[in-house]
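User: What would this chain look like folded?
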Amino acid sequence: MKFIDLSVALDDSPVEPEPARIKYLNHKQGADLLGLAALISGHSVFITLKNLLLHLTGIKKVTHRDFPDGMGLAWETINGDTHTGTHLDAPYHFGPLSEGRPSKTIDEVPLEWCSGNGVVLDFRAKKQGDFITADDLRSALDKIDYKISAGDIVLIMTGADKHWGRKDYFFSHPGLSGDAVLWLLDRGVKIIGTDGYGLDRPFRNMMDDYTRTKDKSFLWPAHFAGRKKEYCHIEKMANLDRIPKSHGFSVMCFPVKIKGASAGWVRPVAILED
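Assistant: Here's the prediction, encoded as structure tokens.
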């Protein structure tokens, strides 16, 4: 089988409004920190005064010099929100209720939703800020001679991932209309993915239209469709153009299990049979 990574790396890229902050500890720093375990006694995780005195006097002090090759273990500390990088939005992100019932948080999303037949719809001809409508979906499916089936994972290719790392990434994608999302959900789709920053149009397009018209339907219509029908979507995907065919492949996209969260980081993968 061939595996294609459909994610961007979680990093401290300034292309996102709230980038993740990652603190890296190398093997030497990790060893010094692990050495502090010598200050812990018994089953307690707290440092005792006696052990602290022994540490300060060097009697019970462990540093990187005591580890094999002078190195311990490396690790990282991440400070970032659940919507940074490639992530799966849970129904709870869209509102407290979906279909009149409490919305599922990311730890409640059925695993069955996260594995299915994939289909790529090419909307790279759309301009930044354009709507992708239900009619556009029907036309794209006609072009590839495909009919949506329940459980399909629909991937919207806009080409916006090619702007990743650039200042215009945030504004470089078209977005689905609310009717387009509902059209897919009516056909049994539970997960929609996009290689753009968001499934909706860029923030400034939505805000410009709302301030001009005061029509609330311009504000996050693709997201808020999830209040009417339950679904999830993946944002900030990548490499959809590397999938060699529009359908006839599988997608897996299991999110990190975060208690009560509105989203979870995910590494979606397209799987093709040889």
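The chain has a mean pLDDT of 92. If you want, I can go into more detail on any region.
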